[in-house]
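Standup notes
- HV: blocked on the assembly model, inputs below
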Amino acid sequence: MSTTARTRRRAALTRFRRQYARQRAGLYGVAILLVAVLAALLAPLLTDPSGMDVTRATGARMAPPSMDFPLGTDESGRSVALMLLWGARVSLLIGFMSALLSMVIGTVFGIAAGHFRGWVAAVLMRVTDWFLVLPALVLAMVLAAILGGSPFTIILAIGVTSWASTARLIRAQTLAVEARPYIERSRALGAGHWHVMTRHVLPNVAPLVLANTTLMVASAIVTESTLAFLGAGSGQVSWGTMLRGSYDWGAATSGAWWYVLPPGLCIIAVVLAFTLCGRALETVLNPRLRGAS
Amino acid sequence: MVRTGTRLAALSLALSMATLLVAHASPSAARTSQTSQTAQGAPQAEKRIVRLGATQSMDSMNPFLAVRVVSTSIHRWMYGFLTVPDSKTLKPGPDLAESWETSPDKLTWTFTMRAGATWSDGKPVTAQDAAWTFNKIMTDDGAKTANGPAVENFDTVTASDDRTLVIKTKKPQASMLELPIPIMPKHVWESVPDIGTYENEVYPAVGSGPYIAVEHKKNAYVRLKANPSYWRGAPAIDELHVIFYENPEAAIAGLKKGDIDWIGRLQGPQFEALAGDANITQWNTQGRRAAYLQFNPGAATADGEPIGDGHPALKDVRVRQAIHHAIDKKTLVEQAQNGLAVPADGSIIPPMYQEFFWKAEGEAAVTFDLAEANRILDEAGYAKGADGIRTMPEGGRKLEMRFSIHTDEPVEDKIAQYLTGWLKDIGIQLTTRRLDSNKFTEETGSTALYDIAISGWSVNPDPEEILATHLCSRRPTASGEGGGTESFFCDKEFERLYQEQLVELDRPARVKLIKQMQERLYTEAPVVAIYYPNNLEGYRKDRIASITPIPEDNGILYGGSSYWPVYTLRAVERAAAPAGSGSGIGTAVVVGVVVVLVLGAGGFLLMRRRRVSADDRE
């Protein structure tokens, strides 16, 4: 990479940072995310995982918040606060990884469908359409049921069912980029498919991919919770399985609000944070949106 | 997946409950009533009606085909049997057969039919009816669906006169007095061309039991009327309605609202939801079910060919016993069953069947003792590795096992959480596999792709069937067809005891043999009983005056193998039924308004959102 390119990129990054800093909502989003991610990463250092084992639970069943259990206990006497911390790891992991998987599939399909015309694009787009019209939640449930319950299979189930709209988005952008004259120029200079796709198209769709991934994480976390609540859980404590447990063991009817509310509020907070970040990114990266505000 | 539907249904129920609350709040709709949809309008004042809720619906009105609990129960109320369990002791007592005797070679049974018993159309019940019923099942494959195995050992069945029925068997059959087969009226059923496809939706039905079905709406309800010509005398109520619900939550709401008067076979949380309702009696007695774990003891087909992928360590009886020591049954009862069960010190026959029940005592009893479990495994040569997980004595494979449970069963999930914790302490790593019920049945019953699995069985007064599920011959065939094994167990001693009890017509001697079989199961541990769930029911005391369970001491109301509870049922006399007309329309209007509001609001928000995003982008 030449020095001019490097300085140009550094300048672009600084400009991006400055513009993002102007988005107040986006900053709140980043702050919430930082707290959530830090809590999830530090959980093994700060707390003892044996508290998650029901046979070692020390509390009473569904005990209200107290000094020992700041958020009360669940139906087996485990600390809800502890479960919330460890659940954040699973929820965030599944959210990030399945969004990543979905973006990778979506980007590959989108760029390929936009770059290659003719029957290749037709086949790829029909496959995309097929995934688009399938009811994603039902398909994910079936997949999770067939593959069995582990974080990996849930990531797969969500990733495989949610990439279609991304592919459409990326394809549209790819078509726009490929219509630019410099692509034609580079083709005339002998650039192959791979060169055009990775060197010219990918960097141009990357901002879109980034913004979309951020929004996708939010929906993946919600999907994970939904799946867990409907019974297709990952087998580990996540916010979704906590909600499920509170429903199964009648926390709401017995008035154990400390078991129902915290996981729900955490999901709302994190999903909101991702959405705020995603919107802010979109505003910064999309020149048309930037012009309006 | 099935339960997901339930969950969604629960959600919609919650929504409709919310609208009902709205309906109650508005003065115009003072009372809501769903009885109108259940059975032919509001109940009339003079009739004594009891409405039973069931979370199953009828699979068939034809007793040759019906297998569900609700169907066989209703058929028990509609048709007489040769014998019926005594309401106090559960020992076989006379029903349509007044008395019986066996020949010295134990192969010929002679039943004397009841004099004076009549069908509801006035014709007498004769030995020909019984002979026709048994012969039909023996000769017509279509009629074998429900009770084929029960007559497998029959050689001939003949009626030597109107009151004498003679059954000759190929081998002696000790369970002859507990045949689960209703006697059908020959003069009505003779003309049915194909029993295997016959729906029997002809009303009023012709029967000989305390009640006669007069109406059946599929998936909605069955209406039964008292049979005035019943040989014991007509029941004390006029009509019994059985109303089908799609899910237990809806049935509980129905009981609380008064849409139904009685519901049986409840789960712990639903049962607890009935607490504190002044109009409802909670019925918590010993149950007929045993919950147990099944281990894969080196599964094989009926021919002895190994199948499946069970963990090799489980072939070792010492490992199975060590795991038995690592199960704290009391904690499981408290945590998974809310205390509404009895920890199992015995085997697969619950204590409700006092006569057959066996439990380990003294030294023989396996107690919760992790140190003892560790000692057994250490002695057997399963050494612990650095990670705390044991390996096979010859090295190599670690003791990492799967625990198969059903999806969507919170109770089984909870058991899995505890087992995982305890087994970790004895150096066995357990991972939970949640399977939908078809796959579960396949993997634990025919393909043997499991290590440890959860299971359970509702035991009949005669325990032969549950004991037979651990026979060598019940293992799947070479082609992988399930034979109904509950453990893939195959043990010479158990087999010998089973054959002996089959032909032992002396009851005390047979009871002793059956207890020995349970002891064998307990020590060999192909299955380990964890608890016996209580029988949980509820009924409205403002509608039901009294009801006698079966057995009369601490027994079951709905789902027991006798008509005794419904026969002894007495309704609270009521002066007049509340008028429920009109309010239904009120509810419908409210629901309609709410739906329109919600849709309207949703549409408005959607439009707004579109406009906002359009603004954003331009």
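- HV (later): unblocked. Chain A has a mean pLDDT of 88. Chain A touches chain B at residues 53-56, 61, 75-76, 141-142, 145, 148-149, 230-233, 235, 245, 248-250, 253, 288-289, 292 (CB under 8 Å).
- Next: hand off to the docking folks.
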